[in-house]
Amino acid sequence: MDHSFIHGTDLIYTGMVGVGGIGSGSIFLLNGNHTLGREESRSGRFIDRRDYCKLHIVSHYVKALLGEAFTVIPVGRVGDDEAGRVLYEELREAGLVMDYVERARGQKTLYSFCFIYPDGSGGNLTTDDSACAHVDSGYVNRAEPVFFAFKEKGVALAVPEVGLDARKRLLELGSAHSFFRVASFSSAEIEDACSDSLLSMVDLLALNIDEASCAAGIENPSARIEDVVFDSFRILSRMNHSMMITITAGAKGSWAWEAGLIDYKPSVSVAAVSTAGAGDAFLAGVIAGVCAGLPLFSAHELGALTGAFSVTSPHTIHKGLNRQNLSEFSKNVSFRLSDGVKRLLR
Known about the structure:
Elements: E1 15-19, E2 23-30, E3 44-52, H1 54-66, E4 71-79, H2 82-93, E5 101-104, E6 110-116, E7 122-126, H3 137-141, H4 144-149, E8 154-158, H5 164-176, E9 180-183, H6 190-195, E10 204-208, H7 209-216, H8 225-239, E11 244-248, E12 254-258, E13 261-265, H9 278-291, H10 296-310, H11 323-332, H12 339-345
Parallel strand pairs: 1-4, 1-8, 2-6, 4-5, 8-9, 9-10, 10-11
Antiparallel strand pairs: 2-3, 6-7, 11-12, 12-13
């Protein structure tokens, strides 16, 4: 695709430095849509789908949407195994700058076991003893020269599957160099992130509905999803009054919060092949929109569209995504675009 219409001068931010998981995995299709029980045995089968981890997914899509004028620099580690070699080459072929991705000798590449139900929903189990586990604050410090290069024009992205210390250091560097700081946290770690004041260093917090509930301490499983969303926004915004927040809830849609205002987008009606990775695709769309100068609620629109496009692929990265294909997709699913998003996708 021709990316020539986007030039550096068209972008508010011209580069992204990210830390998070880089890995691969297998996808297992469960028999039956009922939720897997704690001690239940369930049959199923492995299916031919590629699974990727969070930093890889977000980085790939941001680069695909913004093109040559935008630099994406992942910071991480893969193992010296075959999986690591393949992932390294895929990242490089996608146009990412690989100066700070190391193939670590004697270590294994991060592996994720993704299970999905026949209706397309599912979850992930991820190894915690991989090369990614050795990405710490000291490792992130190696990328400090990049922060000088993109001062006031960069995005700092901190996503799960590496330790909180590494993400905290990336956000500290982003803060010191006036970057736009983006973060997400898993349900298991969001409480620690809140107690460690990490949210004070975040401009955009991206969560799914379960993560938002955990962050806000909402434990009522029968609560209306809208009530959970609004309470989460209210509680989280107290921790950082200037922070923007997005919450995704799969088929229920997504919400964005900025300065007390809330924007809701219903899910796009599309035949989903797999929903794995949709939240990461959504976040990539929001980031791309912000970098292109869109206000948050328009960037939210781009995120919802990108997430919807991603679920039409069996893989957690839809290699066919680009601005032209996303524009055509919006027409096919009758997704109304605002003028700003239209200009970005043309």
